[in-house]
Structures are given as structure tokens and as C-alpha cells.
Amino acid sequence: MKQSVSLVALRCPHCDTPITAGSSEYAWKCGQCGQGILLNKEKTLKEIMISYQQPAHEDSPGCPYWVLEVSVQFQGAHLPANRKEELTQFWQNLHKFFIPAFEMGPVERIQRSTALLRTPPIPISVESYQFRPVVLSPRDLPVYVEAVVLQMEAERQDDLKHLIFDLQLSEADLWVLPD
Ligand SMILES: [Zn+2]
Questions:
Q1: Residue 55 alpha carbon to ligand 1 centre in Å
Q2: Cα 10 to middle of ligand 1, angstroms
Q3: What sign has the CA pseudo-torsion 19, 43, 140, 38?
Q4: Does the pLDDT of residue 2 top 60, yes or no?
Q5: How does the average pLDDT of the chain come out, rounded?
Q6: CB 84, CB 76: distance < 8 Å
Q7: Ligand 1 centre from 142 Cα, in Å?
Q8: pTM of the model
């Protein structure tokens, strides 16, 4: 793993242990007490829950994901009449989105998120383990959620030209899944 050039000195808000953080990272696990830590937009540290799902594969760090619940309201006037009911029915329920938080190109990130929206991982909570750097800011999540909704709909039917919708996003949790 390449080391970031500039390092910021941070301390765990729970046990005050220094955390070595790359300049492009947003969340960590304290190496001492295991506390989940988020760098929020005020550049202060906040304690967060990190959920470790399924046992780690030996010798490879886990993959962190931002997990949030999303509801989508389509603006009906712009929907094709034959798809209106289907779209509304599918999206009116809350859906759990898993957006990869580790290093990945945007296209692959959208594809991975779309696949996990269709087939979400089964939650099995386990002990904490090491994971890859969290390089996606939670503030970037709305852009990805929107792209995933469009990707889903484009795959379901390719004649959709314009979709206008409102998104409601829950706060994001951090999940770590095996690689
Ligand atoms: Zn700590």
C-alpha cells in the first residue's frame, strides 16, 4: 500500500491514542481500543460504530462500505405511463445502499453499489478486523446514490431518457466486509 505524502496527527477521541491517518482518509479504527472514528466536515473527530460483517479472509484486509437507507420519490409527470406503477412500487420501499468506501474508480464504484443493491450481503456481525483505507467522504454519497438509481433503471429498461426524482438518505454507517 502506498503511503500518503502528508500525515495529519489525530488522536482517538475515546482513548487518546495517536492515529496515523493519510491525508485522503475519512474514517479509522483505533489500533488501541478499536473505536471507530470519523473525520467530519468540521475537521473534528467523531466516534462512530463500525460493523464488521462475516469473518475476514486470512491475510487480506476487509473492505469498508458506507451503508445507508434511501427512499426515492419519482416525479410522476416525467415517467412513461407503462412504467409508472412498477417504478413507484419498487422505489417506495426503503432500500439499503452499500457504497464502497475504499479506493476504486467511480464507474466500478457505481457498478459494485448497484450489484449490492440487488443482492445485499447477509448481516453476520463478527469481531473487528483490519480494513482498507476509507477514502470516500460520506459527503460524496448523494452523488453515488443518484448514479446507482440511474444505473438500476438504465439496466431495467433502456428507453428512459429523463428521470427526475428526490432522494431521502439516512445517515451512513460503516460496514466492513471481507475482500
Ligand atoms: Zn482508542
A1: 22
A2: 11
A3: positive
A4: no
A5: 87
A6: yes
A7: 30
A8: 0.87
